[in-house]
User: What shape does this take?
Amino acid sequence: MTTPPSQALPPRSAVLWAFMARQFERFFRRHMNALRIARWGQLSTDSERPLVIYSNHPSWWDAVLYILLARELAPTHVSFAPIDAAMLAKYRFFGRMGAFGLDLESRRGAVEFLRRARAILSLPRHALWITAQGSFQDVRRRPVALRAGVAHLPEHAPDAWFVPLAIDYSFWSERGAEALVAFGQPVAARDLLDLPRPSRLTALEEALAATMDRLAGDAISRDASRFVPLIEGRQGIGGIYDLWRRLRARLHGERFQPGHLEQRP
Assistant: This one.
């Protein structure tokens, strides 16, 4: 007997999700300089179709970005994500936020991934966020090697859109890093179904690599005007040093600039 989609959906508390999203935003603001999205790489969520958002996996911060991006850019979609089972055992609260644990190295884990994905993507305005490389990889590594499971998804979610997401982290002028993201052009699952699986995987890899390469060009430019800031963190060094700078600026009748640059982009 086939399991009804509603029974295969991972647990997800909207209240907990919203609460933790606020906590992660505070954490991000405290430790990073900004979350910026490339002006050319915006995400469109006008369609009711389910989304498969697949990305590279450069850092531990990616999970935080998924939550913040889902809240900021895809509020009309209900978001889910697979997570390594060992990691979920350490951070159990993710299991009530739409994350589901998998053993990525076993056949059983692959079957479970497809079962969960089928349930999620059978519903309109649902989104599955995937670190499709499976493990941490440097953003400069080429070719971009994705796990084969992502190429099986179109067969289980023929109505979905597949959207590449490029993630990069760069230090510019402040003590905190810039988290830079860009979405590529969406591809309909039905178009991917016209390709054999190996070619399908290659097409997904090439789309992600092209998005990553274009984002890298913007990151190298260090030009904040190429991006739209989604979340901005704390600038300056903080502590006694910034307190002294603030007092000195006040004594001289000047405006205190916490950042390293004279004006924030």
Remarks:
- The chain has two domains: 5-234, 235-265.
- The chain has nine helices and nine strands.
